[in-house]
Amino acid sequence: MTKLLEVEQLSKSYRHKTGLFSGTKIVALEPLSFSLERGETLAIMGETGSGKSTIARLIAGAEKPSGGEIRLNGKPLQATDYAERCRNIRMIFQDSLRSLNPQITVGKQLKEAVRFNTNWDAATQQQHVVETLRKVGLLPDHYHFYPHMLSSGQQQRVCIARAIVLAPQIIVADEAFVSLDPSIRAQIINLILDLQQDMGISFIFVSHSTEIVKHVADKILIMHRGKMIEFGPTQVLVNHPKETYTRHLLQTGTL
Amino acid sequence: MPNNSIYYQQREPSPLRSIWLLMSSNPFVVVAFWALSIIFVLMLLSPLITPYDANQQFADAILQPPSWHNEGEIRFLFGTDDLGRDLLSRIIAGSVYSLGYPLVAVAFAALIGIAIGAWAGLSSGMRSSGLNHMLDVILSIPSLLLALVIIAILGPSLFNVMLAITLVLIPQFIHSVRNAIRDEIHKDYVTASKLNGCSTWYLLTRVIFPNITATVVMQLTFALSTAILDIAALGFLGLGVQAPAPEWGTMLARSLDQVYLYPWTMVLPGLALFITILAINVLGDNLRLSIQKRVEQ
């Protein structure tokens, strides 16, 4: 049986323009490969600028890779085919308020995803959005709220609702818990774990926090300066890390 | 029948309504809004409500002062000019030239400018920059001067004035819309919508446009007051709307040599022009502020 997600020789480099024709190449991500099974949780760790956000954005389709291939259930994904990708892979952004359109109500934004990816009629779409809001612990009333009227925890819930509204197979979260306070963070993580159990979603998340990673992740991927230095099951990496960098990161929680 | 609404329900005002609530807290804006609305309604109804024809001459009532003057007559509310034409009728009929035509010019300029600007904002690289700077040459010449150049070539007429003013306003729309879209398009919420699989048209009209209305409104009011002033200025110089037509600038020019003896022939059309432009500027400025404030609330 094929794996849910296979990443092969994925790489990303930017061209920093200095003149009309000249430019320097900046490598954000050196070629890396890994794979993910159904229902598994993968944590990506590393210091700032190590390329961990880049991986998340590449998998979600927010950026185009410079090389390599991402395969979903054995089928390669096209970089620009958003419609195909968003039914299977959804992203939760780092800053929840900024990833919500300030001028449109929460409900309409969630409906946008349903509208472009299903052929349901308007009433069914609406009902589905309300059900999704309930699933993440919000009320049907929140349908008519504008993003700035919600607290940051509720905004995060809306972002999660947007991620699960299409019942995807994979959710990618880019440091989605950084700005939340510990109790809400715990609530949100429990919510995601519940959803994972209910819907069988695979979850890829980028995080700094060793505690969350140890608590949630099945596998860990360690990034350092654009390179993948270690990848393996959480137990193995925590107890028998091969690299000193991994040991520092996971055992002390500080660098 | 018992009252069913026993629960206290907080209704969120719609975007338009909340903008109006913010704006109406300032009394000047309310005054400007009503002034402009009244002028606009007068303009639309001008063929029906003018007491006399704008060009009808009354030989028995030449240079009659306004009705509140001792020598005034109530049948000529604002008095008459040196040819015995009723000033009130001329001012009301003149609003078509002085407000209606600028509105049409701005509408055309906005339509073309916003379309090109949006196209430039969504594309990238050479094409974006090419579209953006396509009409920049026009920006190097002041609007009134360009209108003069076009009129010098094509001859003075209302159509040429409209053409000149529309042309001048287009590049400003292109620039402001393109820059506004550029600022928005890399924000997370646009990426999120893209990842929803939205079409480009939906992305532009439903996702980005609601967020750049403040810029567009500001540009619209700026363009409208420029257009009104330019048409009046060209009329004043005798290059735009031609003499018998009751355009406010033309009326000002005609009354110039009588201003010391019969001041009302100049003050009244001037006042109409002044109130219109002031109302548009006050309203536009506050509309933009309210749109911004609503987002920050």
From TrEMBL, chain A:
<dbReference type="InterPro" id="IPR050319">
    <property type="entry name" value="ABC_transp_ATP-bind"/>
</dbReference>
<keyword id="KW-0472">Membrane</keyword>
<dbReference type="Pfam" id="PF00005">
    <property type="entry name" value="ABC_tran"/>
</dbReference>
<dbReference type="GO" id="GO:0016887">
    <property type="term" value="F:ATP hydrolysis activity"/>
</dbReference>
<protein>
    <submittedName>
        <fullName>Peptide ABC transporter ATP-binding protein</fullName>
    </submittedName>
</protein>
<dbReference type="GO" id="GO:0005524">
    <property type="term" value="F:ATP binding"/>
</dbReference>
<dbReference type="InterPro" id="IPR027417">
    <property type="entry name" value="P-loop_NTPase"/>
</dbReference>
<comment type="similarity">
    <text>Belongs to the ABC transporter superfamily.</text>
</comment>
<dbReference type="GO" id="GO:0055085">
    <property type="term" value="P:transmembrane transport"/>
</dbReference>
<feature type="domain" description="ABC transporter">
    <location>
        <begin position="5"/>
        <end position="250"/>
    </location>
</feature>
<dbReference type="GO" id="GO:0005886">
    <property type="term" value="C:plasma membrane"/>
</dbReference>
<keyword id="KW-0813">Transport</keyword>
<keyword id="KW-0547">Nucleotide-binding</keyword>
<keyword id="KW-1003">Cell membrane</keyword>
<dbReference type="InterPro" id="IPR017871">
    <property type="entry name" value="ABC_transporter-like_CS"/>
</dbReference>
<dbReference type="InterPro" id="IPR003593">
    <property type="entry name" value="AAA+_ATPase"/>
</dbReference>
<keyword id="KW-0067">ATP-binding</keyword>
<keyword id="KW-0997">Cell inner membrane</keyword>
<dbReference type="InterPro" id="IPR003439">
    <property type="entry name" value="ABC_transporter-like_ATP-bd"/>
</dbReference>
From TrEMBL, chain B:
<dbReference type="Pfam" id="PF00528">
    <property type="entry name" value="BPD_transp_1"/>
</dbReference>
<feature type="transmembrane region" description="Helical">
    <location>
        <begin position="261"/>
        <end position="284"/>
    </location>
</feature>
<feature type="transmembrane region" description="Helical">
    <location>
        <begin position="216"/>
        <end position="241"/>
    </location>
</feature>
<keyword id="KW-0472">Membrane</keyword>
<keyword id="KW-0812">Transmembrane</keyword>
<dbReference type="GO" id="GO:0055085">
    <property type="term" value="P:transmembrane transport"/>
</dbReference>
<feature type="domain" description="ABC transmembrane type-1">
    <location>
        <begin position="95"/>
        <end position="284"/>
    </location>
</feature>
<keyword id="KW-0813">Transport</keyword>
<dbReference type="InterPro" id="IPR050366">
    <property type="entry name" value="BP-dependent_transpt_permease"/>
</dbReference>
<dbReference type="Pfam" id="PF12911">
    <property type="entry name" value="OppC_N"/>
</dbReference>
<dbReference type="InterPro" id="IPR035906">
    <property type="entry name" value="MetI-like_sf"/>
</dbReference>
<feature type="transmembrane region" description="Helical">
    <location>
        <begin position="134"/>
        <end position="153"/>
    </location>
</feature>
<keyword id="KW-0997">Cell inner membrane</keyword>
<feature type="transmembrane region" description="Helical">
    <location>
        <begin position="20"/>
        <end position="45"/>
    </location>
</feature>
<dbReference type="InterPro" id="IPR000515">
    <property type="entry name" value="MetI-like"/>
</dbReference>
<comment type="similarity">
    <text>Belongs to the binding-protein-dependent transport system permease family. OppBC subfamily.</text>
</comment>
<feature type="transmembrane region" description="Helical">
    <location>
        <begin position="99"/>
        <end position="122"/>
    </location>
</feature>
<dbReference type="GO" id="GO:0005886">
    <property type="term" value="C:plasma membrane"/>
</dbReference>
<keyword id="KW-1133">Transmembrane helix</keyword>
<dbReference type="InterPro" id="IPR025966">
    <property type="entry name" value="OppC_N"/>
</dbReference>
<keyword id="KW-1003">Cell membrane</keyword>
<protein>
    <submittedName>
        <fullName>Peptide ABC transporter permease</fullName>
    </submittedName>
</protein>
